[in-house]
Amino acid sequence: MTARTKPKTLIVIFGATGDLAKRKLFPSIYHLYNKGRLSENFAVVGVARREWTDETLRDTVYQSIKGEIDPNVGDLKDFCKHFFYLPFDVTSKSSYDSLNTILNKLDNDFDIPGNRIFYMAMAPEFFGTIASNLKSEGLTNTKGWSRLVIEKPFGHDYPSANQLNEEIREAFDEDQIYRIDHYLGKEMVQNIEVIRFANAIFEPLWNNRYISNIQITSCETLGVEDRGGYYETSGALRDMVQNHMLQMVSLIAMDPPIRLTPDEIRSEKIKVLRALRPMEPIELDNYFIRGQYGPGEMNGKSVIGYREEEKVDPNSGTETFVAGKLLIDNHRWAGVPFYIRTGKRMSLKSTKIVIQFKELPMNLYFDQQQSTHPNLLIIHIQPDEGITLLLNGKKVGPTGETTPVQLDYSNNSVDSINTPEAYERLLYDCMLGDTTNFAHWDELNLSWNFIDVISNYWEKNHPGDFPNYKAGTMGPKASEELLKKDGFHWWSLFDSDEKYEV
Ligand code: NAD
């Protein structure tokens, strides 16, 4: 590997004692190291409020990785020696001075040419303060590059996102800002571009002449767990639709970029978001519906409803489920509905995109009183990764009957390797300076403006019927009706345990 693929980097994690650092960041850095993508010239400085020492951090890193270690590769303790800790007050200038002294020393000790990633793994209210102090106290003033990684949520609505953006833009340029959308780090989400732009059989059909509708589902079996306080201020619309779901819509719908560079891809994705038909409050109920889970059963065990969860208002109007119909007003997609749905406490954990093709203009088998199945292309994003193509074949035997034939490609079984964690990829992309799989401000600007109309309408009109779906089902009936009135239904072919009930 060259220096370009093994970047010499210093990573500063703000919020190093937190959950994200422990569960995602430390293991991701270890995997990069283990796979030889990091040279020995790297160091990580964790900062947070607690009075930890280097040893406490190293022990936490060790514990967070121990279970995943490959016994044939090096000593985990050697890896942990690259970690350092500084108790930190984000509002105190002297904290930044101390941090800079450590960073300069580590540059020297590990032969790092001033390349710095500042990873914001703490509450967003501190991002602006941290960014401006990093600049004013000279921490970004090095011979190498400085990059800022920002976790979601990026704002609560357009005005707050814009304010946050203005604060961080005072200290960092747009091309130095890496806004994490961990869906964009997923193997199959990145694979959407390859499926579309490297296969001659799909691209000619990828339009309103051949596609009847597209369905994007991201459902979880988990409830809000211990995040009730956060979720009450967010809800499924802000937590999932504004970012992950709209990112998937734009990747599926974008035109082929003229080159596979971050700028060109982004520019095509932005065109999709610009072409989204804006919602009008007066007809919003025909396009977007919301749900909240009540008590129910999961795997034979009773579970409580959302309103009974910790730190949740017993009369909460927060949605834990959203289904919507999006229309993209451009030449390619005019008339093709994009249906999206996402929710918690549903009957299965699954993220998938189903592309339903139109029927043939003259279906000879239909004329013979036989039903053929519409062709479907299914992109499985998680937990399984792969694609399924559903065709019609002839039933074996003397009959002339047709039968659906399923062609499956699964990443896990074909390559028999674990697919890399999204965070690992994104961190590596950031080290390489590749912004393709991060959200640009222009995308956030458009997506928040689209979402704000819906959230404002919902805030003004408290739902009368919550909870409206039982935990362990596929959401409220209204979600089915959203498609039914267009003559479609959610495809549930590949998840046999889906059930619909209120
Ligand atoms: P957490 O509460 O577990 O950790 C917060 C960290 O920030 C702690 O290290 C804490 O010491 C530090 N901190 C808080 N106030 C501070 C201050 N004034 N000065 C210095 N340090 C301070 O939170 P988390 O779950 O690790 O999440 C961090 C961020 O990542 C949040 O913005 C969250 O929304 C986002 N996020 C988390 C996850 C996840 O899986 N945990 C997933 C997606 C996004």
TrEMBL record:
For this protein's source organism, the top of the classification is: Bacteria, Bacillati, Bacillota, Bacilli, Bacillales
Positions binding substrate in this chain are 182, 186, 220, 239, 344, 349
Its gene name is zwf
Q: What is this protein called?
A: Glucose-6-phosphate 1-dehydrogenase
Q: Where is the active site?
A: 244
Residues involved in NADP(+) binding: 15-22, 49, 89-90, 152
Q: Which residues form the Glucose-6-phosphate dehydrogenase C-terminal domain?
A: 194-491
Q: What organism does this protein naturally occur in?
A: Evansella vedderi
Instruction: Using the record's annotation, list all stretches that form the Glucose-6-phosphate dehydrogenase NAD-binding domain.
Output: 12-191
Q: Which domain of life is it from?
A: Bacteria
**EC top class named in words:** oxidoreductase
* Family recorded in the similarity comment: Belongs to the glucose-6-phosphate dehydrogenase family.
Q: What is its EC number?
A: 1.1.1.49
Keywords, alphabetical: Carbohydrate metabolism, Glucose metabolism, NADP, Oxidoreductase
- NCBIfam families tied to this protein: zwf (TIGR00871)
Q: Which reaction does it catalyse?
A: D-glucose 6-phosphate + NADP(+) = 6-phospho-D-glucono-1,5-lactone + NADPH + H(+)
Q: What InterPro entries does the record tag this protein with?
A: G6P_DH, G6P_DH_AS, G6P_DH_C, G6P_DH_NAD-bd, NAD(P)-bd_dom_sf
Biological function: Catalyzes the oxidation of glucose 6-phosphate to 6-phosphogluconolactone.
- A Pfam match is G6PD_N
Q: What GO molecular function annotation could you give as one example from this UniProt entry?
A: glucose-6-phosphate dehydrogenase activity
Q: What pathway does this protein act in?
A: Carbohydrate degradation; pentose phosphate pathway; D-ribulose 5-phosphate from D-glucose 6-phosphate (oxidative stage): step 1/3
